[in-house]
Amino acid sequence: MGAVSSPWTAPVATGPVRGRVSVPGSKSVTNRALLLAALSGGAASVSGAPATRDTALMVGALRALGVPVTVEGEHVAFAPSTGLHGGDVDCGLAGTVMRFVPPAAVLADGPVRFDGDPRARERPMGTVLGALRALGARVDGDALPFTVVGTGSLTGGDVVVDASASSQFVSGLLLSAARYEKGVTVHHDGKPVPSLPHIEMTVEMMRTAGVEVDDSSPNTWHVAPGPVAACDWAVEPDLSNASVFLAAAALTGGSVTVAGWPAGSTQPGAEILSVLAQAGCSVEPGPDGMTVHGPDRLQGVDVDLHDASELTPTVAAMAALAAGPSRIRGVAHIRGHETDRLAALAHEITAVGGDVTETEDGLEIRPARLHGAPWGAYADHRMATAGALVGLVVPGVEIDDIGCTDKTIPDFPGRWTALLG
User: What is the model's pLDDT at position 338?
Assistant: First the structure.
């Protein structure tokens, strides 16, 4: 994990935060690109891959399956390969590794054993593993640790899943589906799928790699069998990570520019712009990037973050410091993320003097006078950055594990302190 794991006192802004930041590439785009490159079996590359733990875990998983891959800084190169073999995969705490790699592992020649961090063993896996069994794969276990017994191929076909706990269940099945003999048709049967933009990102990237995907019917995705083209992928900045830096401007009446903000993006994190506007910020795209100017008084918001639930900790931190009440809705599924994020946010905001109520699918947060206190990160990168946001305005917020931010932002403490200048 990160080098900084002892308690870290969040630095307080002495005035409006002003600056320009470059954020690492999107982990969501990166780990999809890495898997598609591996499945192509050809000479492929991924540039702009962030030097984070999630990237390293995906690269390590692919190496464990025999994929010839080299990493130099933010550039990952793949040499041509003839197939996958069995091995041991460490998922760490990366949902993309534990949900995207097992459907590829059925194509390996031999058993692939999966395990991860202690907290990863609590994360739901039954949907993806049950789907693989329904498609003809042999899987021993229903959560980490488990073993996929690869036989070099899979028939594929139709499968019904309930993906209401995570869009990653659908994305994981789709990414490898073209390599199955009959392809795959995934039917979702259940409550609405959370974070649909992540599935749209998966489908768009698969089409870029020459895979035929039909998503014209609601809750159904058909992937035709065929090759996956070897591509040279360029990864755009991670907009969910960028949201934390933009929120610093919102909370302090400052002005922050994120360099390289894409003009159009399938990343759910782009939704932060409409949330910031509702909170009273001005949002300005420009040749230099995306700039947010914070207001004199931050307003409360009423937002449905069902499709962009990863923004919940950032929005909750802003809400705790806003002048009016806020409501975050549509995010019941984040109880199954790195931690139960709703319970964790409610607990930590209350600990610093906040007034918060957990609802069935979100949080209600009212204005209160906050004070310094220890802030638990729960080994969750977004909980840690939420604490840093509260600490911008409230002296004495002490985060127990800032090192867990290495999952997606290398040297977050250094970048944060540099922005505060």
Answer: 66
The pTM of this model reads: 0.80
Q: Please tell me the total count of domains within the chain.
A: 2
Same domain, 216 and 270: no
- Active-site residue set: 310
Residue 231 resides in a domain: no
DSSP H stretches of helix in 155-213: 168-177, 196-208
Give the side-chain half-sphere CA count within 13 A for 6.
Answer: 0
User: How far is Cα 257 from Cα 17, in angstroms, rounded to an integer?
Assistant: 11
**Per-residue pLDDT reduced to its tens digit, 134-158:** 999 999 999 999 999 999 999 999 9
Indicate if 369 and 328 belong to the same structural domain.
yes
- 62 plus 166 within the same structural domain: yes
Domain span holding position 286? 8-25+239-420
- Beta strands 184-188 and 157-161 are parallel
Interval 4-19: pLDDT, tens: 457 999 999 999 999 9
Q: Which residue has the higher pLDDT, 195 or 119?
A: 119
Question: Cis peptide leading into 102, omega within 30 of 0?
Answer: no
Q: Please give the structure tokens belonging to residue 169.
A: 């269940």
